[in-house]
Amino acid sequence: MDADYLPFHPNPAKPAFSPPPGAVDAHCHVFGPAEVFPYAPERKYTPCDAPKDKLFALRDHLGFARNVIVQASCHGRDNRALVDALHSAGDLARGVAVVGPDVTDAALAEMDAAGVRAVRFNFVKRLVDATPREVFLGIADRIATLGWHIVVYFEAPDLEDLTPFLKQLPTTVVIDHMGRPDIAKGVDHPDFGRFIALMEDPKFWTKVSCPERLSVTGPPYDDVVPFARTLVERFPNRVLWGTDWPHPNMKSHAPDDGVLVDVVPRIAPTAALQQRLLVDNPMRLYWG
Ligand code: 0GY
User: Fold this and answer.
1) Which of 25, 49, 176, 244 is catalytic?
2) What is the mean pLDDT of residues 99-109?
3) Which of 15, 60, 65, 99 could form an SS bridge with 261, CB 3.0 to 4.6 Å?
């Protein structure tokens, strides 16, 4: 089965930046291997296999201690590859699952025991068929009782329409990839202002991740730095960072994860900000 996009970087550089002890890569995926954990029939793309042992080797190579593994759309609602990786990682990983309204309480309890701490609601139209909002609200009420939170993935043009729904959700809400701003518009554009206004509500967190997807200029992603740095400095206790390895759907280039880690000191310029971004915040949310 051939992947629809570039394979992940085979040999990422050792970053110049040393993450603080206990650093968490709070957004990454495991894919397959397909012969053990087949991809979902309803998927919108076919990924390259990116199994757990490769993820753990990358974690060690980059100087990180822990992972938050996020269920991606290519595995649909079949969280077996995720749960298997969590079991292998022991206390060194937590998970974000994708479930439907038919998920049983027993399945939720099993995922909780494995280390799942959130569900992901995906609104990106090229990745998933739409789910009615009442369905998401029903799932939200059920996972709230487990103490889980909600991770949402959407693109900037959908923010205005989604805002009332997001505010209605009963848990902490983590927004993937800064709400995917249009970097070409610049950091002072009202669209990014709308995202910052949403973040003023303390229920919202965001991942200052994915410069490789958002950048117009490419590596080392200078054009994305002001967006992420603004969020880190303004909301230092509600930001997370992740590699997004193995970078599904990247067609422009296969990002070097070492180069991505070297973006961190540019968006979190002090040791205190780095400690919150990479250690304190993810530990509070996923290991607290
Ligand atoms: C990401 C981004 C992407 C894919 C998914 O669930 C997914 O398939 O999240 C993307 O293509 O933007 O966060 O890894």
Assistant:
1) 244
2) 98
3) 15
The three-state secondary structure class of 28 is strand
Say whether pLDDT at 144 is over 90: yes
The single-letter code of the amino acid at 39 is Y
Cα separation, 211 vs 209, whole angstroms:
6
Q: At how many degrees (to 10) do helices 190-199 and 225-234 cross?
A: 30
The pLDDT value recorded for residue 177 is: 98
DSSP 48: P
Cα 150 versus chain centre, distance: 11
**DSSP characters for 180-201?**
---GGG-TTSHHHHHHHHHHTS
* pTM (whole model) above 0.70: yes
Nearest CA to ligand 1 atom 9: 72
Q: Is the pLDDT of residue 188 over 70?
A: yes
128 close to 121: Cβ distance less than 8 angstroms: no
Q: Are 229 and 187 in contact (CB under 8 A)?
A: no
Pairing between strand 66-70 and 93-97? parallel
Does 1 score more than 90 pLDDT? no
Mean pLDDT of the chain: 97
Better-predicted residue by pLDDT, 6 or 18: 18
Active site residue 244: yes
Determine whether the shortest distance from the Cβ of 73 to ligand 1 is under 6 A: yes
Please work out whether the CB of residue 72 comes within 6 Å of at least one atom of ligand 1: yes
CB 47, CB 72: distance < 8 Å: yes
User: Domains in the chain, ordered, with CATH?
Assistant: 24-287 (3.20.20.140)
Task: Name the maximum alpha-carbon separation found in the chain.
Answer: 47
